[in-house]
Design brief:
The chain has one domain. Helix content is 16%, strand content 25%. The protein has helices at 25-28, 60-70, 72-75, 121-124, 157-162, 176-180; strands at 83-89, 98-100, 108-117, 134-140, 148-153, 169-175, 186-189, 201-206, 212-214, 216-217. It has a five-stranded antiparallel sheet with strand order 4-3-7-8-5. The longest helix is centred in the N-terminal third of the chain and has 11 residues, at 60-70. Residues 19-34 have a biased composition (Polar residues).
Length: 218
Amino acid sequence: MGNVCGSSGSHHVYSPSSTPRYGSAQSSANSTPVRHSPAHSSAASSPSGERLTSVYQLSSKERKKFLNNHDPMKRFGLSSSTPVYRTTHKSYVDEDGMMAGNPHSGALIEMHEELAPNPFARSNGFRPDEARAYVPRKESAHNLGVPSLNVMVGAGALGSVKRYAQDDHVTTKMKLGDFLNRGGKVYTDYSAVAGNGDTTNALLVTLPEGEKVPVKIV
């Protein structure tokens, strides 16, 4: 059933569909930078002939446009106080009410700071120095090399995951800032089937190995 609900020892229980540690709550709401090596592609080149694979190769104006459209923190208006929800097997919530990340996530995510060519750029006449000439590079969360949790956000998020709660599964509420303060990164999960892009959006949030976040069972 895709990345919605499943129960196994891999910690892949609820999977609906990013950022160095920030110094303040305000800055965490502004962007989610990542520094993974971009994959080689047939991306369009800049006027100088340089291939663009990173959002930082765009001008500041075009970079802002791209991140406003693709960075989930900006696109969905998220902040450190934003609640996120996940239904998971109750064994993953420890006796102190804390939860660690899943090192084996199968989610597919958008790397919003890495550029891939927009397949419609040429036919639409988009210049290679324009943000609209690119889309985020797609990646498997497993390849990030860091544990993560699939969560839902938005007005309908709680309802979308609550239906998967049963005797051995619980619905949990977490605060996005608890991930960010521990060095977490936020990505859009485009493989989730539960998000509707309106009242409910799917995210993948990383949580470095050895870190846990507090959860509230709701």
